[in-house]
Design a protein that fits this description.
The chain is mainly α. Helix content is about 65%, strand content about 0%. The protein contains 10 helices and no strands. Helix 2 crosses helix 10 and helix 4 (about 40-50) runs antiparallel to helix 10 (about 145-165). The protein is elongated, with a radius of gyration of 16 Å.
């Protein structure tokens, strides 16, 4: 899809496409209403600016639209709309040892218990060991610091997804 095609979509279809990129309903609404975008750069700049204008609750809503890192069953079931993007983002988790998967599952549970939301990381280009190391390091953060890190990672994920949406 091109930027011009995104601009031309009916409102409800633009919402559907942008929701694949980010699960915050407020972000999707704002981005849909900001159309038309002149070009890819303007769209990506607007996506970032809009994301960082949101509230903590909007960010947490977006986090809810992600499967847990390494939870392939969740990817297949609950997150069918974004599964294609999530699977490619988490491709560093293919052929992972059972031990790493168990550590990821345990770390995810501890993280969610501490912060109240799932571990958000831009997994693209990272292997399972790198993701596990990030999870283990970030679990020691204070809640304010961690929300900022997760929010930045979510922004990276959103930008990557917009890029994929716009790829020919």
């Amino acid at each position: 899809m091109t930027v011009q095609e995104l601009n031309s979509l009916p409102y409800h279809e633009a919402v559907k496409q942008l929701t694949i990129c980010c699960g915050s309903s407020k972000w999707v609404e704002m981005m849909t209403n900001l159309r038309p975008f002149l070009n890819r750069t303007e769209l990506l700049d607007a996506a970032k600016k809009t994301w960082f204008s949101l509230t903590n609750q909007d960010w947490l809503e977006a986090f809810e639209h992600h499967p847990k890192i390494g939870d392939l069953e969740s990817l297949r079931n609950k997150f069918q709309k974004t599964a294609e993007f999530s699977l490619s983002e988490q491709n560093g988790l293919n052929d992972v040892s059972e031990d790493i998967l168990i550590q990821l599952e345990k770390g995810n549970r501890l993280y969610e218990n501490k912060f109240g939301y799932i571990f958000i990381v831009c997994a693209a280009g990272k292997n399972a060991e790198e993701i596990l190391a990030l999870l283990q390091a970030r679990i020691n953060n204070d809640p304010k610091e961690e929300l900022l890190i997760a929010t930045n990672d979510q922004n990276e994920i959103t930008i990557l997804r917009i890029e994929k949406l716009l790829d020919p």
